[in-house]
Design brief:
Distance between the termini: 53 Å
Number of strands: 15
Largest sheet: 5 strands, antiparallel
Helix content: under 10%
Strand order of the largest sheet: 1-2-5-4-3
Radius of gyration: 31 Å
Number of helices: 2
Strand content: over 45%
Length: 268
């Protein structure tokens, strides 16, 4: 009777506390029954501290058998166990978005015909004859954070789904994954079954930095949390040097438009 050998080919997955897929090569088995019996007795019962959950055998082109094993957290006495966060995957994307800027950071030059006096528009960009400030589109950073976590199916309860829905469109009220309170807007999540015993939840967040002492217009310095918005009220006055009407900022408001909440319920 030939001596059977089982060789580990590779292991791949999320490592400790998540799931692992492993492949073994089983050589010299004469038939399916012998191969299954040998695999059942010799495939390791753990990989990366995870228990063996399932094995599948297929015959290769050479006549040997390929054994594919799946390892993941086993069911606990009270049902399946929620996965830990130790191997959650983060993907930060830094892109751009266009915003309308009505007031410049600084006026570099003012040019008028010889003999005339330039009007001080206080940084207003593209002011028309009626005093309307059209501004200009500029590019600013746009950060999005995607986080993937893995859960046992029993953890994806109706209450958990409701929590995701309720927190969508809210801003963090405490530090979240290294970002300060006010900087993270939760955009929602997608739940994807991977296997019968594992589900992947993909979360998406928008990141915008808090600012302190930001000059939004000459003479107006503000503090603003990332997802708060600002707007400026203007008034008309006369530039006495040029004897010309101009629109200038009279008041800058910072407004809260998103509710704040704890993100603890997201399971991250």
């Amino acid at each position: 009777m030939p001596t059977l050998t089982l060789t580990h080919v590779y292991s791949t997955g999320l490592g400790e506390n998540q799931y692992v897929r492993a492949e073994y090569l089983l050589e010299d088995a004469t038939d399916d029954a012998a191969a299954r019996a040998y695999a059942a007795a010799n495939v390791p019962t753990t990989d990366s501290s995870l228990p063996l959950r399932q094995t599948d055998l297929t015959r290769s082109e050479t006549g040997d058998f390929v054994v594919r094993a799946q390892y993941s957290l086993a069911e606990s006495a009270g049902g399946t166990t929620k996965q830990t966060t130790t191997a959650a995957e983060e993907r930060l994307t830094v892109g751009t978005q266009s915003v309308r800027r009505l007031v410049s950071l600084a006026t570099i030059s003012e040019t008028v015909p010889m003999g005339e006096t330039a009007t001080d528009y206080a940084g207003a960009i593209n002011q028309d004859e009626d005093g309307n400030i059209e501004g200009v589109d500029v590019v600013v950073p746009r950060l999005t954070l995607a986080v993937s976590e893995w859960f046992a199916p029993a953890s994806i309860t109706q209450s958990f789904k409701r929590t995701i829905a309720d927190l969508t469109g809210t801003v963090n009220n405490a530090t979240f994954r290294g970002w300060a309170a006010g900087e993270v807007l939760f955009l929602g999540a997608r739940i994807n079954p991977i296997r019968d015993d594992l589900q992947q939840v993909d979360y998406e967040f928008a990141i915008e930095a808090n600012v302190t002492g930001f000059t939004i217009a000459p003479g107006f310095s503000i503090d603003k949390k990332g997802h708060e918005v600002t707007w400026t009220a203007y008034e008309t006055e006369t530039d006495t040097n040029a004897n010309r009407a101009r629109r200038v900022p009279a008041q800058v408001n910072v407004e809260q438009v998103y509710a704040t909440a704890s993100f603890d319920g997201l399971g991250l």
